[in-house]
Amino acid sequence: MLFRELMVFDKQIPSGRIDRTDPQREIMQGDAANSSTRSPAIGWRRALAGGLYHTGLLRIVKHISRQYELGATPESGGAFLRKAALPKFLILCYHRVGTGGVPLYSELSPDVFEAQMRFLKEQYRIVSLEQICQGLQEPTTAEPSVAITFDDGYRDVYRHAFPILRAYNLPATVFLIADSVDTGQVSWYDRIFLALQVMPAGRLEVELDRLWCFELTSRVSRLRAATDIISCLRKLPNDRRKECCADLDGRVELPAEQLEGCMLNWEEVQIMQQAGLTFGSHTVTHPVVSRLTAVEMEYELTESKRRLEAGLRAPVRDFAFPFGHVEDCGTEAAAALRKCGYRSAVTTVPGVNAPSANPFALRRVQIGEEHASLSMFAFYLTEQFLLASRTQSDVAMELESTSLQRKPRDPSRAVGGPRRA
Q1: Does residue 362 sit within a domain?
Q2: Phi/psi of residue 149, each to 5°?
Q3: Sequence-separated (6 or more) residues with CB below 8 Å from residue 161
């Protein structure tokens, strides 16, 4: 019965197509005034996770997931257990550990993060990203392994996450945006979220791929509008995206006090580096890599590596795709990354990695507010390992089969009502 329930949930959440900490997803979960937006599947997942965790059954399932995987027969879709043939590597992706202020789209209490780190320390083999890269090439153990990563380089990582990681002696990799660590400025998408919060109430019209209209009536509606704008900008050529960002920047003066001290500086990075944390590249300006020209891509990959290596006085060998969905990565980046001297690149396509994985298209699972309860966090990790065979297909193959020119949503639907990015 338990395995059947897991298979049902797995079918309801398509592999490789959902960002589990997508800002819009968090907004929708937080909008208690509109209960119709809540997914029944999410409620059942929480109920199942809580039941398994508090009865101790989750430990049994976790033990099974160390050596077995849940497969499905092609004909009937029926579930069956099979011996795991390959080691399994799970990479966790965090953005910030903290609450309030920039980034406005994400919050995770330090207490929740500490509980998660304590659980990982007690229950899993925690490894560095370098060990995962080595294990993908030359596996030495069949024990499931977990790595911890952070994207963007928010200062909360130093203030809140770093002391916890150090207390539990856990390795982690932080992917830095070169411009942000050099200048202290937040990235373009954070400026859009803040701009939408401080703009006057009323109707907002903005020309993106076409004219979009939004009603700014509440904090939630402003977050939704920002999410929709950013989602649309991710589909545009990089030059056009920058034009749209400049237009929005010119419409309102952003409060300087909310932009200061949000990003890591070099002193903080070097302190963490000396304590054993490692750092990778998240580009220079956090563009959508699939929307870059060849010249722009070479600049973002090589210049970010050069600047970070100069500040760290150490090689930078790992890369994280901004946004990281299949459509954000593109098909040209792997060759460019290899040419620049990187050894790996991580996405935000959920799932585990096995020795057959493409090192320049590694899967990661995003951890956010929906995993705030320890039961959901424990259940989610166990589920990933147990359903590993369903998510081990090469992300590069998905890149080949995914259209990079999806038609944007009808702008007339941007006014009122729930919208998904």
Answers
A1: yes
A2: -135, 155
A3: 94, 97, 110, 113, 150, 172
The number of angstroms, rounded, from the C-alpha of 300 to the middle of its chain's C-alpha atoms is 19
Does residue 321 contact residue 234 with C-beta atoms inside 8 Å? no
| Domain range enclosing 43 | 2-185+259-401
Torsion of CA 346, 7, 29, 114, to 10 degrees: -60
Cα separation, 132 vs 149, in Å, equals 12
Enter the tokens of residue 384.
Answer: 């990933």
Provide the pairing of β-strand 318-320 with 202-207: unpaired
- Residue 44 and residue 169 share a domain: yes
**CA R_g for the chain:** 21
C-alpha pair distances (Å), 108 with each of 1, 26, 161, 368: 33, 11, 10, 7
The verdict on 161 and 294 lying in the same domain is yes
150 within some domain: yes
332 phi and psi, to 5 degrees?
-95, -15
Asked if residues 164 and 117 have their Cβ atoms less than 8 Å apart, the reply is yes
201, 133: one domain: no
pLDDT at 39 > cutoff 90 = no
| Cα separation values, 4 from 70, 77, 78, 143, 392, Å | 10, 10, 8, 25, 20
The pair phi, psi for residue 81, each rounded to 5°, is: -90, 140
User: Is the same domain home to 175 and 249?
Assistant: no
- Are 27 and 124 part of one and the same domain? yes
The answer as to whether 283 is a domain residue is yes
The reply to whether 421 falls in a domain is: no
Q: Assess whether 155 and 264 both reside in one domain.
A: yes
**Across all residues in the chain, what is the average pLDDT?**
82
Measured CA to CA, the distance from residue 392 to residue 43 in angstroms comes to: 27
Q: What is the mean pLDDT of residues 81-87?
A: 67
Structure-token pair, residue 125:
């083999």
Q: Per the structure, how many domains does the chain have?
A: 2
Across the range 313-335, mean pLDDT stands at 97
State the DSSP H helix or E strand holding residue 281, giving kind and residue range, or none if neither: strand 278-281
273 and 333 together in one domain: yes
3-state per-residue secondary structure call for 210-226: CEEEEEECCHHHHHHHH
pLDDT tens profile 132-175: 999 999 988 878 999 999 999 999 999 999 999 999 999 999 99
**DSSP secondary structure letter of residue 276:** T
